[in-house]
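ugh ok fine here u go
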Amino acid sequence: MSKLITCLWFVKNDGEEAVNYYIDTFKSAPGNHDAKLGDITKSPKASEEVSGRPEGSVLTAECELDGISFMFLNGGPYDSFKLNGGTSFIIECETQEEIDYFWEKLSAVPEAEQCGWCTDKFGVTWQVVPRILDEMMRDPSKADAVTEAFMPMKKIDLETIRKAGE
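structure:
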């Protein structure tokens, strides 16, 4: 059976810190969110010379966030492997309380905030959006008004989006 896993490369070797942070963030979130730790793999002696990582240090940390598998790889400082906003993870929220919670936990780079997008302290980009946004954007009679409402926002205001879609 095939399993799709998102692997994120961490240049500062903080993959283990990140996995613990995300598990805590999702487990503590309001609404129906789940998180669990997976395998932790340590660097073997044979990889020390090539990787520059000492034997026994954390190489990968795995977790599952809301049913999606992630692997955090402490890959080291290679410029071409830095995280950027070209890849983002969408958290669909039912309530403003969920939006506020995830925004508080995940937004760490104010200049990267726009239309529900934020970047966390590890450089991972998230879209914290109401679940109804996608539905309203597919409706041609609502799309323009909803877009005008959320474009100037940083963190999404659910009530403003709902009113725009009426």
